[in-house]
Design goal:
There is one protein chain. With about 140 residues, the chain is mostly helical. It has a domain of about 35 residues. The protein has seven helices and no strands. The longest helix has 23 residues. It is elongated.
């Protein structure tokens, strides 16, 4: 077990919620571990301090007010920005961005198809053909 688990067991021991077997294992660990013994002393000191303090007076209506606020949360306030966001920005802006994105992607995909030569090669002017050496010319 880790120190954190033993410290949780110390808290259970102080609250009298620990069984006999777990208590025996805890005290075996406390015999060897100074860190957990210091934690036990601290928990015992805090417990005795809390026992000596007076309890604060709590209004009887506190429970009802807390449960009422959880059961019926206050309505959310809507400012002038909420209708503007919902009607003028939240739907039209993403829709326009989606359309622009589709147009750009579509034009990039269709551009090679629209500019293809379909097998036609450009004509070379005869003045340039006469300057090509006969060994490099293709027979027609």
């Amino acid at each position: 077990m880790t120190h954190l688990e033993f410290q949780q067991q110390i808290s259970f021991h102080v609250d009298n919620a620990l069984g006999d077997a777990e208590s025996a294992q805890l005290f075996m660990h406390l015999a060897e571990c100074g860190e957990c013994r210091a934690y036990l002393k601290l928990v015992m000191r805090v417990g005795s301090h809390l026992a000596s303090e007076e309890l604060a007076e709590v209004p009887r209506t506190l429970d009802r007010r807390v449960f009422a606020s959880v059961a019926n949360p206050p309505a959310q306030r809507t400012g002038w920005l909420t209708p503007v966001w919902r009607t003028r920005i939240s739907i039209p802006l993403p829709a326009a961005a989606s359309i622009a994105f589709l147009l750009i992607v579509g034009s990039l995909l269709c551009y090679p198809l629209l500019t293809a030569d379909r097998g036609q090669q450009p004509e070379i002017p005869p003045a340039l053909i006469s300057k090509i050496p006969p060994a490099l010319q293709k027979p027609e």
